[in-house]
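User: I would dearly like some help making sense of a protein record. This is the protein in question:
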Amino acid sequence: MDLSRNNKLLDTMLADIESAPPIYQPSNFWSIFIRSLTDEIKEHGISSFRSQKHALGLYVPTYPDTETGKMEALCDYKVFLAGDDDKFPWLDCVSESRIGSPVQQFLFDDKYYSRSMLNYLRGLAFLKKHVDTSGLKNVLEIGGGFGTLGEIFLKSDFNRFFYVNIDIPPLSYISTRYLEEVFGKDNIAGYEITRDLKLINIDEFAQRYKAIVLCPWQLPYVAGEFDLFVNFFSFQEMEPDIVENYASHINRLVKKNILLRNQKDGKQVAKQPGDIGVLNPVSRKDYIRFFNRFKVIAIDSKVFGNRKDGFESEVMILQNRV
């Protein structure tokens, strides 16, 4: 892999974020980790990014590194299988790539799964129970980590799906490289292709590519319609004004459904700016208010989310009112 080319792309992303509008710059939570993540990526590339210490627990979710963790993974897998309806998209055929040297990946029924993939699969199984997903084609995600959701959809039906991930660098860089490694560089439109565009027409890109990875300040230039918007966990790591701004674009771009997984009452509050945490938490009532073109049709924290020791992470489905 040409690490010099990769570092140039990453440096371009990081330079551009400095001149981006403040609403698209990293939140208090993420600004703390940008430097360490960037240094880690520049030193190791993507060859082992899923085993590097700063990635684990941030954009690479993990279970406890004990026998209990293995049991939790198996439990999540069983919940996914039991909850997944026998209808499109077919999720039980998906097996995760081993790119990035994952330190935690489990083999169940001859397929590989990480916590990231099992989180998404449980959420998608919940979606299929409440929504007609037979016509699903275009999927938009904000804060997609290293690209797991795109991997799921493209592996379930490569010819059908088109996936867009929007994230801050260096995460946008990592997801670009990961998806390129899994599906081939020619199928992924990275920042070097879209950087100077003032119109990013989804229909046109879908004719040439299977996925696009964008940086947040490019969102106002996106045009077209998406069947589904997904956010898993990352909204809870942002301030309310940042999420509200993203929601304004989701309201104009998404014609059918929203799938969210976040903490019901929001993430821990930082003691002061620069400390780990958010300055103001985003809660369920905020999502409902921000996504004003949508109505809530299902919420769960007992089965497809997670409720444990006072912690409550819920999966929520919203449907366009139109």
